[in-house]
Design brief:
Layout (H helix, E strand, L loop, with lengths): L6 H15 L2 E7 L2 H8 L5 E9 L8 H6 L5 E8 L6 H9 L9 E2 L2 E2 L5 E5 L2 H18 L7 E3 L3 E3 L13 E4 L2 E4 H12 L1 H9 L8
Helix pairs in contact: 4-5
Length: 210
């Protein structure tokens, strides 16, 4: 038997890589990464959203290290998307209208630098584009937008227990009792007033508040 792979077999192996070649990645920090992940996984053209950490000085930090402070990391997400369906500019615009861009000290009930907002850009073109979108958002809002555009840096995925938290059926102990993660997430988001504040700021321009 020949040990050479057939053309058909090679095509099957190459397919996932071809699919990934048609995607781009945007990294943003918007407070609790469970919430940002849940929002953007609903967007048409988004292939995947991964919760993690970026912008810091410690390699492969743990969740506890980041929230304790001192690593310089933000809770962030990497959004992998199909630019033929939705553009980077559209995603950045949606992101700004899904957070409290006026709050420099965190987001909603989560306080501290690790929960602050930011947009990460990898090239000069991406930086200029993002800054232009921030300026437009500020003009629309009529208030200063404090969300910075920062240089892209290493992104570290959070542990599996933090991925897809909003739809997980795993059970956790919370202040509300033992709940499925999906239930705990909804209770947390409501208690933090995330959607209420975003709607107060952006009104009908807020893309995820329903």
């Amino acid at each position: 038997m020949s040990n050479r792979l057939s053309l058909a077999a090679l095509a099957v192996i190459a397919a996932p890589f071809a699919a990934m070649a048609d995607t781009d990645v945007l990294t943003v920090a918007g407070g609790c990464f469970w919430c940002v992940e849940a929002d953007f996984e609903k967007v048409k053209g988004v292939r995947e959203v991964v919760s993690g950490f970026t912008g810091g000085t410690v390699e492969n930090p743990s969740y506890k290290q980041v929230v304790r402070g001192g690593t310089g990391h933000y809770e962030a997400v990497q959004i992998t998307f199909d630019p033929s369906v939705i553009s980077r500019a559209q995603l950045v615009s949606m992101f700004l209208r899904s957070v409290d861009v006026t709050d420099p000290g965190g987001q909603f009930c989560d306080r501290g630098q690790s929960y602050a907002t930011a947009i990460f850009a990898g090239t000069k073109q991406e930086t200029e584009q993002a800054k232009g979108i921030v300026a437009k958002a500020q003009a629309q809002l009529g208030q200063k937008v404090v969300t910075p555009v920062l240089p892209e840096s290493a992104f570290y995925a959070a542990g599996p227990e933090h991925q897809d938290y909003y739809k997980s059926t795993d059970r956790v102990i919370t202040r509300f009792g033992i709940k499925k993660k999906s239930e705990a997430y909804k209770l947390y988001r409501t208690a933090c007033g995330r959607d209420q504040r975003v709607k107060e700021l952006w009104g009908s321009a807020a893309p995820f508040t329903g």
